[in-house]
Amino acid sequence: MTGVVLLVVATGVALLVAFLLLLCLVAPLTGPKPLSLSGAHVVVTGGSSGIGKSIAIECFKQGAFITIIARNENRLMKAKQEIEKFSVNDKQVVHTVSVDVSKDCTYVEKVLKQAQEKLGPVDMLVNCAGTSVNAKFEELDAGRFEQLMAVNYLGSVYPTRAVITTMKERRLGRIVFVSSQAGQVGLFGYTAYSATKFALRGLAEALQMEVKPYNIYITVAYPPDTDTPGFQEETRHKLLETKMISEASSICQPDHVARIIVKDATQGKFSSAIGVDGHLLAILTSGMSPAFSIADAFAGIICMGLFRFIGLYFLTSFNSIVLRCMVQKEKSGKKD
């Protein structure tokens, strides 16, 4: 009897593996066609530094024409000179636009229209402009919540509105929203920041349903802590609890993050994760997000239960970290 049960189980596992392999073979036939960046016009907001600049460089290496948008003109010019070093042909152009993408939707549409007149219609928009603040909820002024929502959320809405109509007319386009792992799971000290990054995912899911019939694909990128000027500045004022959580994983380099985001975006993947922990987190928090392929969807269904347990374990570990921090602070206070 035991032998029969084992045979049935082995047969079931073999059929499951065969089914998954078949899905992996069929998936490329059903997914979007990769977007070639050679000669394409790529717009990157927040493109003067950090991940945004690295994304612009990666696209330029692949033959794209680049428009980088940021507020600081000096940083824009330095970034332009740096990006131009990676040209693959003498026709490529790097166009700069100094504007705050979170302030005036009409003006953002105007400057992007001018950019398209110079370099052609936008093939890929990367919304990378953003800022962060790390503090406890009650210690944050209400104005900081408004500021972060304006920069991190509306700063992505306005440029997207400026290019979406032309993309629909051309039946072609990629739009990237650079969120964060803090946009997948709320973290201590990020009540203002996490909310804005969660908002990008909701926007992306709804927008993907609207534009998929027009051959436009949305990508939400969830980078971990990345060694950028913004991250270095934030670390100087980071809460002890948040520091201890961050130290549990390594810091990524912006060039590495950029390569993955660009690859996933050109392929039309909805979620872009970095590293093993990033992929696990993406599966754990996938919910009802669009799946890149049938194989991805099936793998998510199979793994969801297991990763739910993993998620609960991390939640327990997180609570232990917070408790240790509180005890450590209390001891430090007594010593003083």
TrEMBL record:
Pfam families: adh_short (PF00106). One of its GO terms (biological process) is 3-keto-sphinganine metabolic process. Pathway: Sphingolipid metabolism; Lipid metabolism; sphingolipid metabolism. It is found in: Endoplasmic reticulum. The chain crosses the membrane at residues 297-322. One of its GO terms (molecular function) is nucleotide binding. It is an enzyme of class 1 (oxidoreductase). InterPro entries: KDSR-like, KR_dom, NAD(P)-bd_dom_sf, Sc_DH/Rdtase_CS, SDR_fam. The keyword Transmembrane applies. Gene3D superfamilies: NAD(P)-binding Rossmann-like Domain (3.40.50.720). Its main location: endoplasmic reticulum. Its EC number is 1.1.1.102. This is 3-dehydrosphinganine reductase. The gene is KDSR.
